[in-house]
Amino acid sequence: MTTSNRPHILLITTDQQRFDALGINGNPVLETPNLDRLAATGTNFSRCYSTCPVCIPARRTLLSGQHPTTHGLRGYQDGLDWDPPFTMPGLLSAAGYHTQLVGKLHMHPLGKRYGFDHMVLSDTSNWRPTSSRIQRNDYVRWLRRHGVEEHPHLHGIGSNSRLVNTWPLEDRYHHNNWLAQEAAQFLCEDRDPKSPFFMHLSFFQPHPPLVPTASYLERYERKQMPGPEIGEWAEELSQRTRPGLAADSAVGPFDEAIIKRAQAAYYALINHIDDCVAYVLDRWREHGNPRANEPLYVIYSSDHGEMLGDHHLFRKNLGYEGSSHIPFFISGFNVDLQPGSCETLCSWEDVLPTVADMAGLTPPGAVDGRSLLPALRGESVETGEPLFGMCHGLHDNYFLVNEELKYIWFPQTGEEQLFNVIHDPKELQDLSADADLLSPMRDRMDPQIRTHGGVEYNRSALRPCGNRLPEVFLAS
């Protein structure tokens, strides 16, 4: 395959978007018609998980095709330089692709390109000019050039908060709109027209702060929100009283009105992103432009999810569906696609080998994923199960997902939970009291921990929760 006939590749990622936060994935309230259409005309991977559901480890995985146990970061830790042997954009750049980042990279040091030819960089809309790690923000530079001197976080909402406010500046200055404009400018004006391109359009939201524009927020405040899912095992938290609970607390219970408003704002931000994606693709495929006939793959996913009040939990880091189960589809134009869905377990480890396959390349070193490109042609792909994940942090946890079950282990307390995520996708009933189901999952977890875990998995100290609340959350 020569450089001239290689397909363009557009990778679109959001931050903190859970699997069911797309209409096509069963959400009855959220309006995502443009993304739904893209997913329906390509392959929608319904069982994609983040193997470390927090920002930086997941983004290392995306760049390298490596599991957290390979690239070495198993929880959130900022300020760490990283020098992988190769990266997805670096591999493509070396093969003649024009590689561009627009938005969030969340790598250190700020400005290191990690294989991108050029970056329009804004890791967060919360500009922190006195921080040694977040000084550069191309979005704020753009605001200043347009005469906006106010700090874009006049709304006062924190970057992990469940509280909500409306966007305080004009709608056209919203971070989502800026990203869409920068992406369209690259596609239509700034890219090398003689080379195929790889662009990573990386949205910061729906990660908090939950600050949609008023028009989008009002749309969802008028709707009936479905409310968070509370498992039988989490009912104990419903009885707690926690006055003065911090706005960024990961464990509730939370005020029902505040969670309802958080849901509305979260959906509003995703609806906005849906429209921004439509704008970018409409600019690329403008009527009468020869670009519309060029081959283009479009990949869409998110680094991790958001608990959004489910089981009285907020934020991410956990193996539960709201946190670790993510949207992922591959679509495109003028490329070989057979519309459908794929239920094979997959993860962000698979993105690099898939992108390399699209470009006719072979990764120059070992990766922990495999190409999913055959699925786009309706062919079977090698099974990736069981899928092993973990996240260190406030609630250290390890999890395994196979064709039907999910096993979660909290090493701080030795507690275990077990869910049938096919028949109980909302994880309402913990099955860990069933020894016949639990024992095989322990057998599968044991070698994973021994090989990769870095902690002791003592079978005699394991404590099945038996559909009761894990004590690990009571100390939070």
Quick overview of this protein structure:
The chain is 27% helix and 16% strand.
Counting helices, strands and paired strands, the structural category is alpha/beta
CATH architecture of the largest domain: 3-Layer(aba) Sandwich
**Mean pLDDT level:** 94
CATH C-level class of the largest domain: Alpha Beta
Q: Largest sheet, if any?
A: 8 strands, mixed
As a whole number of angstroms, the C-alpha radius of gyration is 22 Å
CATH level-3 fold name of the largest domain: Alkaline Phosphatase, subunit A
Number of helices: 13
Please estimate the helix content.
25-40%
Overall geometric form: globular
Strand content: 15-25%
Order the strands across the largest sheet as they lie in space: 5-4-6-1-7-9-2-10
Poorly predicted residue ranges? none
CATH homologous superfamily name of the largest domain?
Alkaline Phosphatase, subunit A
How do the SSEs run, as a string of H and E? EHEEHHHEEHHEHHHEHEEEEHHEEEEHE
The beta-strand count equals 16
Tell me the distance between the termini.
55 Å
Quickly count the domains: 2
